[in-house]
Amino acid sequence: MVSDVEEITEKTISKGGILAKLYFDMQGEKGEELQPLMADLINNRLLKSPGVVYCFGSIEEPIMIEGYFSTSAAITTLFKDLGAAINVVFNFAPIGIEVLKPSGEYSVKTSNLQSILIDLSNISTNYSTYIMNNVLSPDEKTRLEEEVKRRKALGNHMLDKHGKES
Questions:
Q1: Around Cβ 42, how many Cβ atoms within 10 Å?
Q2: Other CB atoms closer than 10 Å to residue 18's CB: what's the count?
Q3: What is d(CA 12, CA 14) in angstroms, rounded to the nearest whole number?
Q4: 18, 23, 49, 59: which could join 96 in a potential S-S bond, CB 3.0 to 4.6 Å?
Q5: pLDDT higher for 115 or 16?
Q6: CATH architecture entry for 4-106
Q7: Residue 60's closest CA among 95, 92, 25, 33?
């Protein structure tokens, strides 16, 4: 007899889904805070990410390593498609990933690949904007803006040059 979870899994995989085990870690000075934080990450962020069909797993008891507490979690996650998996991996940065299904080759439709690449570009832009606004010093920001202007000018020069050669 096939369980509901197995049925949902096989149906999702047959339509381009991916079943993977994601491994996460978390460190902190207070061991008692780590498991609730990890549970929040899984239940309120990972599970609610676009394209995550389900996830379940276990969170290890915190242990002391070099003066800090550390915990880990192994979370089996079913993704609707490759784009959802990439989004989660990019946003949550697991320390390890094990693809469970499908086995063998995995194909992606061109339209889905285009969508995935646009999503990656948007994620990259969001992170770049965050770093520009919240991490860089004013001097670093000015230097980066000048570099971007020079690269843009060089890119325009290359387009003009290669456009005339075509």
A1: 20
A2: 23
A3: 5
A4: 23
A5: 16
A6: 2-Layer Sandwich (3.30)
A7: 25
Radius of gyration of the chain (CA): 21
Q: What is the pTM of this model?
A: 0.72
CA distance 88 to 25: 15
What confidence category does residue 164 fall into, taking pLDDT thresholds of 50, 70 and 90?
low
Whole-angstrom distance, CA of residue 45 vs CA of residue 52: 10
Tens of pLDDT along 59-116?
A: 999 988 888 888 899 999 999 999 899 989 988 889 899 999 998 888 888 888 888 8
CA distance 108 to 75: 24
Residues 52 and 78 sit within 8 Å (Cβ to Cβ): yes
Distance between CA atoms of residues 41 and 33, nearest Å: 12
Paired tokens of 142 = 């000015």
Is 80 in contact with 73 (CB distance < 8 Å)?
A: no
For 6, half-sphere exposure in the C-beta direction (CA atoms, 13 angstrom radius) is 3
With CA atoms as reference, report the closest residue to 24 among 14, 34, 32: 34
